[in-house]
Design goal:
The protein has 84 residues and is mainly beta. It is built from one helix and six strands; from the N terminus they run ββββββα. It has one domain. The protein has a three-stranded antiparallel sheet, with no helix packed on it. The protein has a three-stranded antiparallel sheet with strand order 2-3-6, with no helix packed on it. Strand 2 and strand 3 form a beta hairpin. The N and C termini lie close together (12 Å).
Length: 84
């Protein structure tokens, strides 16, 4: 399993963004932003804090649905490259 492409986050307008990666989990994005994963489709945030998927397994991509927690319990970390 190869790690998914890291989501791209841009500011919408003049607002400052605060983007933080949760260890083994999603990105937390505070502020008005545009988010893209795997292609050139951009999605606007609609909440003060948005949670963006980094594992690539969410059914709601680009938004996190908590699937990374299930994968972690199964011993799978999609954010890490497999060891050779």
């Amino acid at each position: 399993m190869t790690p998914p492409e890291e989501p791209r986050v841009r500011s919408r307008g003049e607002a400052e963004l605060d983007v933080r990666a949760c260890p083994g989990g999603p990105l937390l994005v505070r502020g008005a932003a545009r988010v893209s994963v795997d292609d050139d489709t951009w999605h606007d945030t609609t909440r003060p804090v948005s949670v963006v998927c980094r594992c690539g397994a969410s059914a709601l991509r680009p938004w996190c649905d908590g699937t990374h927690k299930v994968l972690s319990r199964r011993g799978v970390n999609p954010l890490e490259a497999p060891s050779a």
